[in-house]
Design a protein that fits this description.
- It is a single chain.
- By secondary structure, this protein is an alpha+beta fold.
- It contains 5 helices and 12 strands.
- The strands form 3 sheets. Strands 1-2-3-8 form a 4-stranded antiparallel sheet, with no helix packed on it.
- The protein has one domain (22-203): Coagulation Factor XIII, Chain A, domain 1 (Distorted Sandwich), CATH 2.70.50.
- Helix 3 (114-121) runs antiparallel to helix 4.
- The protein is globular, with a radius of gyration of 20 Å.
- It has helices spanning 3-20, 60-63, 114-121, 132-139, 200-203, and strands at residues 44-47, 50-56, 77-86, 92-94, 100-102, 108-110, 144-146, 151-159, 172-175, 178-180, 185-187, 190-193.
Length: 206
Amino acid sequence: MNAMKTRHLSFAVFLLAARAMPLSSGDYQAKTVAVQPVESYPARVTVEQVTVAVDPYANDGKSRTAFDVKDLNSKGYFPAHVIIKNASGNHLALRTRNIVLVSPKGQEYYTTPATLVVQDVVGSTSTKSGSPLLDFTSKELTNLSIEPGTVVNGFVFFYTPEPKKNLFAGSKLHIPSIRDETAQKDLGPFDVSLDPALPAAEIRKK
């Protein structure tokens, strides 16, 4: 084997090794996601003074504005930023377990925990400050209490084995209920159509 072929082979091996290496916390840059007034989000619904808005991250470019991963959607993971405003005078409780994405054909996609997303996409399990795992989990929407007159937000993640299709096009985010702890009753359901928040080009990727 001549020297030129040897150099080409060595470079190819280096590229394969680099792709296989997990992203270290030093390579990852945590990003801040701004939360706008809930009324400014096109995809939203209000039930009894409680508004749920959803900002779908339908492509790699937009997802990278929130998470320092260049191919999150291409690997099948579609993040949705959920913003909830409690304009009532009551205390509410959110349980995220039953949140689903419903496709135009009625197929239901349950959320994927942020820890599994990071392990699959990044390969890092470090919980150090600035690590991918810490960033994803700190931004994840979790079970929480919503005080009167406050806004809460967080991301949920949906997986599809067909990432070339836009999982959000024609779909709706379904929250069966949000518990009103003060009145001891369930509010909802909250069904948020995502098409109003998607560019026309993304809607055509159904």
